[in-house]
Every structure is written in C-alpha cells, then in structure tokens.
Design goal:
Layout (H helix, E strand, L loop, with lengths): L20 H4 L1 E3 L6 E9 L6 H7 L4 H7 L13 E9 L7 E5 L4 E6 L2 E6 L2 E2 L8 E10 L7 H6 L18 E5 L5 E3 L10 E3 L3 E2 L2 H10 L5 E5 L3 E6 L2 E6 L3 H6 L13 H13 L5 H10 L5 E2 L3
Parallel strand pairs: 4-13, 7-11, 10-12
Antiparallel strand pairs: 1-6, 2-3, 4-5, 5-6, 8-9, 8-13, 9-10, 14-15, 15-16
Helix pairs in contact: 2-3
C-alpha cells in the first residue's frame, strides 16, 4: 500500500502538507535518519499544470506524472486531486558533499547535519553521466556554452559558442566537474527538470542552481549513483521506493504501455533489510510497487 493515499503510520511519517519549495527542501537530519520529507496531498489551483506544480514544490516533472498518471501532462489540471512525492529516501552513499541519484533524478547536498535536495534533469540513454566520484573544479555565473562535438554532430545548426542569454541551456550559473564536459548547471527550459534530455550534464531549476551555486565551493565532492530502488527502515516500518525508468518517463507523454522492467536489486535490498530487522515483508505490496514504479513510498510491513 502506498503511504499517504491515505495510510496512517506511527509518528505521522507522511502527511498532507501545504508546503512550498522554499520551506520543504532543506532538512535537519537526526541520528540514523534515512529519509526526509512527506507525501503532499493538494488540490490543483486554477491554471495549474503538472510542470507548474512540479516547480512550485521543487519536484521533477516525471516525479509528479509517475505519481499521478491520470493527469493531463500538458494542459490545465484545475481542481484535480494531486499526490506530490516529496518524500525521499536518502541515497545509499557516504553523506559527503553532493550526491546525485540519477535514477531518482535528484541531487542531495550534505552539509553537517543538514541535507538540501533538488530535482535534476538527467541524460538521455546512451549519453549517461559517469558514475563515481569527482569534485567541483570551477564555478561560473553567466557561463558560455560550447557544445561538444557529439552534440554538434546531432545538432549541426548549433553555433560553436553560445553566449550567456535566454538561448543558453546552461542558464545563469554552472558548476564544472572534474569530468571534462560534464556540468551541474541552470537551464533555460525549466520544464525539462526531472526528465531525461541532456548529453550527460545535470540541470536544475533557475532558483535551485542559484541556491546551490551560493552554498557550495570549488573542491566540493560530487558522487553520482544509479539506485532505482530505495529501501529503508523509517518510523518503525520497512519502506520501498521504486523510481520511474527512462522508458516510463518517455511514455508519460503520450500515455502508453510501459514494461517497467527492474533489476534484481529490488528483492535483494528488501530481503537484506527485512532479515536485519527480523520482519517479513509484504511481497504483494512489493510486486505492486514493482509494476507501478510511481516513486511514492510503499509500506512493506504492518
């Protein structure tokens, strides 16, 4: 069963909130805390669209669509009941500097006992961001964009150098990584955040890159992982999140059948955590989550 649709849970782990991006993306971590945020239930306002709601609550487009596949992905959704997946299991990685879970399309910046999280636009299949550890080697406002040879081969009409301005896909700021040609940057197309569309760079909403640019420094470690299944013990329950894959993300516009394949990582992670906690997971709920891949937290124990 999905959390928050609605499901009561000890400690009110998930609840309906009227949070906004400004007060929902930074969290103080307690000892051993493995998840942050809440599932948000709300009614769309007049003129709201999926992209507008995603940006307002600092979520990615695919995150919102996967949790609400019945919504019109392009037109107004006024009056619709919307579930916003603003609950995040933290990546299974050292909590140092920036950690990006490419499968979740989400960046986490760890700073002491705090974590700040932002949705990101990620790469197309075949142009994936490298996995591993690097660091920020430079940071620039109003960056110049020099399309790589691969990009110019696919889009020969592009200029060799694109100056700062509304046509520059790097937006107003960029963080340059130790991997040449890979950046974390802003965007001139905010509707692309939370989708697959780049040649390996990671993009953030304009307001998010402004925040991240201000608080991180050259030398900050950056780690990229691809964890399409997150499992954690939180507030007395075993919870799983299974994130939409690229195939599902593409199929959301227009709606179509998706295979929703998943790696053996799922059963392994659930079984390991269940043995550690000496509990029996609800495999039926797990199978439902496996097929839905909604990104919403699913409770696997009573």
């Amino acid at each position: 069963m999905r959390f928050g649709i609605p499901v009561a849970i000890a400690g009110a782990l998930l609840c309906a909130l009227s949070a906004t991006a400004a007060d929902a993306r930074e969290y103080v971590l307690g000892a051993g805390q493995v998840a942050v945020g809440s599932v948000i239930h709300m009614t769309a306002r007049p003129g709201d669209t999926v992209a507008a709601l995603a940006r307002r609550f600092d979520l990615g487009f695919t995150e919102v669509m996967a949790a609400n596949p019945e919504l019109d992905p392009e037109g107004p959704i006024t009056g619709a009941d919307v579930v916003l997946p603003a609950f995040h299991i933290l990546p299974d990685a050292p909590r140092i500097g920036i950690v990006v879970n490419l499968a979740a399309q989400r960046l986490f910046y760890f700073n002491g006992d705090r974590v700040i999280t932002f949705p990101v636009g990620v790469a197309l299949a075949g142009h994936e961001t490298p996995l591993g550890v690097t660091q920020i080697v430079d940071k620039r406002r109003d960056p110049v964009w020099r399309p790589t040879p691969t990009i110019r081969t696919d889009q020969p009409w592009l200029a060799e150098i694109v100056p700062p301005g509304p046509r520059n896909p790097l937006g107003a700021a960029a963080l340059y990584l130790g991997w040449p040609a890979y950046l974390i940057h802003g965007t001139n197309m905010p509707e692309g955040i939370g989708r697959s569309g780049s040649y390996g760079c990671l993009s953030l909403y304009p307001e998010d890159i402004a925040s991240l640019f201000r608080i991180v420094s050259v030398g900050t470690q950056v780690r990229t992982v691809r964890q399409d299944v997150a499992v954690a013990w939180a507030k007395g329950a075993l919870i799983a999140q299974i994130y939409p894959n690229e195939e599902q993300g593409r199929a959301l516009i227009p709606a179509s059948t998706v295979s929703r394949t998943i790696t053996a990582q799922l059963r392994s992670k659930v079984s390991s955590e269940a043995r550690h906690r000496k509990v029996a997971p609800d495999l039926k709920a797990l199978e439902t989550a496996r097929w839905e891949r909604s990104g919403l937290p699913v409770r696997l124990t009573p």
